[in-house]
């Protein structure tokens, strides 16, 4: 079945949103004359609008409020347009960053590898069941202003709206730190109404190649290494996948293998018995949720070899049009899985839908048989038990590109609603314009286009 065939039979609704630029106008600006900066600065720009409460401070009782979050949004929106990156500590002092990351990190590390999200909640006041809307979001990649638009458009997280983010908050875009901090703040404020899954870019390897490490070092200066380490610690705590209302599986990359552990052939008593993984790829089979739940996700970089392969599969895999499971040779880590595997996975777990992310317009340009990412999503497999979709939420991606020609892709998010939650409603949206000027934190002219061709040797697997 081709992707174009599957597209026609699947969507229930698709709406295109109109771009709304921010209402809060920054102060009048002039081009800065400094040679190494493209930031817009003027004599008045260093004084923020009076309605902003900054620098941010940590509430004495440690409890964040909706006002605190809205002020954080307004401060980041203003600073991203008016301050050079090295001035971020004047908005978010490192001690406030520390407090937020500490609380969020503790929360995230306690969550299971695969979250079970139940949108049917009993309302203790009325005794009635309240049913909630679920919003699923794909890759964001540091495009803060597009995320702010998405949150306004979909409606903020609240008691009756749960958000699930599929990872890749950082790298490539210029505001990965602000993006990640904002999502952590929502998590701390409403821990049961926003869930943050890990993407392959929430790793030491990716952030050292695609800009986030340099971004944090630039923004926090002599405290940069400290702040970057705190971010990595938080990344290690991010859960890997979710099941929504018992019928929708979401993860950044997708499906994962079974890890058959077998004792070695020469057991020399219990102590010396070595556990080896069967390396025969002909034996690849889909893993169970029990295996997913016992994988060790607290690693700086998911390993591509050894016994702990499930995190790498969930974060790095891609669907294929070829049946079966095979090693993902394009990426060097993770799997390719065919429509038959999608069917097996859905059927055996009584699921209706898989929502994964991980492939933007650049990756899709090279993938025969798959739809592009012009609308921010694609329907990849349509099988008897349900569907597999790819969701990408960074419009006009990537922010920095060496060529004149841009993809001009829309971003999208998915809304799932009662009673069954299994039918995705797609909302596509265009990039916020104009995007504030910024310099890239990586060499986007030389760095490889997509995440394939990894330099595996430099990954941290300890
Ligand atoms: Mn990815």
UniProtKB/TrEMBL annotation:
Coiled-coil regions, chain positions: none
Gene3D superfamilies, per database record: 3.60.21.10
Annotated spans, Disordered: 24-54
Superkingdom field: Eukaryota
Keywords carried by this UniProt record: Hydrolase, Manganese, Metal-binding
Composition skew (Low complexity), residue ranges: 30-46
Catalytic activity: O-phospho-L-threonyl-[protein] + H2O = L-threonyl-[protein] + phosphate
Principal EC category: hydrolase
Protein EC: 3.1.3.16
CDD domains, A to Z: MPP_PP7
Stored Pfam families: Metallophos
PROSITE patterns: SER_THR_PHOSPHATASE
The protein's required cofactors: Mn(2+)
Single GO molecular function: metal ion binding
Domain Serine/threonine specific protein phosphatases: 197-202
Family: Belongs to the PPP phosphatase family.
Alphabetized PANTHER family for the sequence: SERINE/THREONINE-PROTEIN PHOSPHATASE 5-RELATED, SERINE_THREONINE-PROTEIN PHOSPHATASE 7
Protein name: Serine/threonine-protein phosphatase
Annotated source species: Quillaja saponaria
């Amino acid at each position: 079945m081709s992707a174009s065939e599957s597209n026609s039979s699947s969507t229930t609704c698709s709406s295109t949103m109109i771009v709304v630029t921010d209402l809060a106008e920054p102060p009048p600006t002039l081009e800065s004359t400094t040679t190494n900066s493209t930031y817009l600065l003027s004599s008045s720009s260093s004084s923020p609008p009076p309605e902003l409460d900054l620098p941010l401070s940590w509430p004495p009782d440690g409890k964040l409020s909706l006002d605190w979050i809205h002020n954080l949004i307004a401060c980041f929106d203003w600073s991203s347009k008016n301050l050079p990156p090295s001035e971020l500590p004047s908005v978010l002092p490192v001690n406030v960053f520390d407090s937020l990351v500490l609380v969020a990190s503790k929360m995230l590390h306690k969550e299971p590898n695969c979250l079970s999200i139940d949108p049917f909640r009993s309302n203790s006041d009325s005794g009635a069941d309240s049913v909630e809307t679920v919003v699923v979001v794909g890759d964001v990649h540091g495009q803060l202003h597009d995320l702010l638009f998405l949150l306004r458009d979909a409606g903020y997280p609240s008691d009756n709206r749960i958000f699930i983010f599929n990872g890749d908050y950082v790298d490539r875009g210029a505001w990965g730190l602000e993006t990640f901090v904002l999502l952590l703040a929502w998590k701390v404020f409403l821990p049961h109404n926003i869930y943050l899954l890990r993407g392959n870019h929430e790793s030491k390897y990716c952030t050292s190649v695609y800009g986030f490490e340099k971004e944090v070092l630039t923004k926090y200066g002599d405290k940069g290494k400290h702040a970057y380490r705190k971010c990595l610690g938080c990344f290690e705590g991010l859960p890997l996948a979710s099941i929504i209302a018992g019928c929708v599986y979401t993860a950044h990359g997708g499906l994962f293998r079974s890890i058959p552990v077998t004792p070695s052939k020469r057991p020399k008593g219990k102590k010396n018995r070595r556990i080896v993984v069967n390396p025969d790829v002909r034996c690849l089979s889909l893993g169970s949720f029990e295996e997913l739940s016992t994988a060790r996700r607290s690693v700086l970089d998911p390993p591509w070899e050894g016994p702990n392969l499930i995190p790498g599969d969930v974060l790095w895999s891609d669907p294929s049009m070829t049946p079966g499971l095979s090693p993902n040779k394009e990426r060097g880590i993770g799997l390719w899985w065919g429509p038959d595997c999608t069917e097996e996975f859905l059927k055996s777990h009584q699921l209706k839908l898989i929502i994964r992310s991980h492939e933007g317009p650049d990756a899709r340009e090279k993938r025969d048989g798959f739809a592009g990412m012009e609308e921010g999503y694609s329907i990849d497999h349509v099988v008897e038990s349900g569907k597999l979709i790819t969701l990408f939420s960074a419009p006009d991606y990537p922010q920095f590109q060496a060529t004149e020609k841009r993809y001009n892709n829309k971003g999208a998010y998915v809304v799932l609603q009662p009673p069954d939650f299994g039918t995705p409603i797609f909302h596509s949206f265009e990039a916020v314009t104009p995007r504030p000027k910024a310099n890239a934190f990586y060499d986007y002219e030389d760095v490889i286009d997509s995440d394939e061709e990894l330099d595996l040797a430099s990954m941290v697997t300890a």
